[in-house]
Amino acid sequence: MNKEPMRILFAEDDPELARQTRGWLGEAGYETVWCATGADALKLSLNPVFDIVIMDVGLPGMDGFEIVERMRGNAIRTPVLFLTARESVTDRVHGLRVGGDDYLTKPFAHPELLARIEALHRRATNSLAAATVKAGWRMDPARRRVQVGNITVDLQPREWMLLELFMANEGKVLNKKFLLEKVWDLHFDPGTNVVDVMVCRLRHKIDEPDRPSHIQTLRGKGYVFQATI
Amino acid sequence: MFSRQPFDWRQELHRLPSAWHLALLQAAALLASLLLFLGIAFWSIRRDLTDGSRARMQEELVEFAALYNFGGLPPLYAAAAAQPNEADRRVVRLTNSEGDAVMESSVPASHDYSWDTLTPFYLGPGQMDWHILSRPQGKGKLVVGRIGLADGNRLWYARPDDEELAAAGEATYRLLLIGGLAAVFGLVPVAWFVQRVLQPLRILIRGAHRLAAGPGAARLSAPHAIPELKEFAQEFNSSLDRIATLTSELHSVNEHLAHELRTPLARIRGNLENLLDACGSAEAEDAAVRGMEEIDRATQLVHSILTIRLGDTGTMRLHLELTSPFELIRDLVQLYAPSAEERGLTIDYDVESDALVLLDRQRVLQVVANLLDNALAYTPSGGRITLVQKVDSEGFLLRVQDTGPGLTQKDLENIWRRFARGSAASARTPGTGIGLALVRAVALAHFGEAGALNRPEGGAEFWVRLPLTPDVGDPVD
Hints:
The structure holds two protein chains of two kinds. By secondary structure, chain A is of the alpha/beta class.
């Protein structure tokens, strides 16, 4: 028996964006319920059957912030990801303050949406700890030392965080924006190719010579980490 | 060479607070008019008194002469002694034609004057002459009148003007008292000016200073001010209301624009992602990837333009947190260091001092990132980028120095304008030229400043200065 698919409530008033996103969520194996108005979103969000709520802020009738505030007021603890065109820090902070768990601005890369959903779900179900232990890898967090195959390397703090993030999302596409936000707490895109160079440097440290890399670059999408090649 | 500034009283006067200035002017005007008034009054009183006493003296002299001519010395004695009060102050003297005194009634007040040395000369009967003698020391005069008598003798009559002097002095004293009182009343306008004009003006200035932070709900008010100032405050407030309306419109337009642009961009991006996943042709994939990159750039551009606009209109909302700039910038420098290395550049970060500063972390990070992007783009391989940080009582100062070609005069003038690009930019240099405009907008929103200069040793320097605490701004919520 397969385990039950994750159920997602998706509130978004733009039909085209909703169509695309539902497609991606479906491909990822999630079961999605979509609604396009504030009233419907409020009614559905008070139903505790969902594992994750993806909430647009600018919904007709009632804005997403208010809906989530009411949800929390009604003791519904379902993780909420705001998906919105509002990108100011003030809005982001407001979103997290009313009870949101994560915040993604439009336009977005769909792998990033999926990675964030996974992360939220893992956090909600406490399944994060095991994710960093991989076969063939010996990690020493105290000294930030990694042993893989016959290579032992010491990592810089941010390189360590980058590797941890990759390991926690093994096989998933992680884009530049997601890495910048999670590792460097940068919510904007620097003009210079800083992330490419950083990933390249990490790759040089953990890859064995003459073997394919653990971190693959997917053009236009991001990076994928594989623990074993 | 050291040269002393000459004392310029005009300039000193202009530096005085207005209340003192006005009081000083008023006092000077009062003093001048008081002196003038007193001078005229004293002079005219003195003259009146002198004229009066001269007339009385003349009358008496003629009367005494008549008495003597009629009855000789006895009636003269009797008359001289008749008014004891007067007798204390006047001197009557009778001399023969040689000038020898025949009779003299003297009073102490006359002793100071050597009046008997007045040259005797012939006076026919009824003829009079008058002399005014000054006291050799001190004030006062002796008025001497002489008349020729029928028997050839002369009758002298003298009187010191002490009394008149005292009377005039008394009058002057009273005038001075009245004048002083008038001067006190003269200061009433100054008090009025201070209370109704200056103090309200100060309140208005303080209010305006608060407003400089951005037209919030605060308005000017000066309840005790003169009507003109009240009217000014009213006019000012109604302009503020208009600005506030425009600002809120701008905010909603910005939000609307952001939403209206971002949602379609998201739709296009989604479709391109689907295309990339489904097409299977290298050429189509390449096109899809390029399209997505363009959309990401456009998104960033919209974000930057809106941020700059908010900065320009003084309506940028900051998310202020107490932050150590060193911890903030250190991580960013570490992020940029490998990229710099790849380009053959080194980045140094000199921290002269560090302390907690109230700032918007993300926006300041973006400022530093933009400056680093800029330095990386314009510094040729082999160069060096140096960040110098200082935090002191004046605030936070970051200087980003490079060993690039530096800035032309035109660059220095234009570089902060939107979409301006340095003259050293080439087609290869990335960026749309709004990075520096954003740097300045964020600095201004923090009540700081940003600037650029050419270093004497070559290369450009961009600097950002932020105060320790921006005066006003939205607190964390």
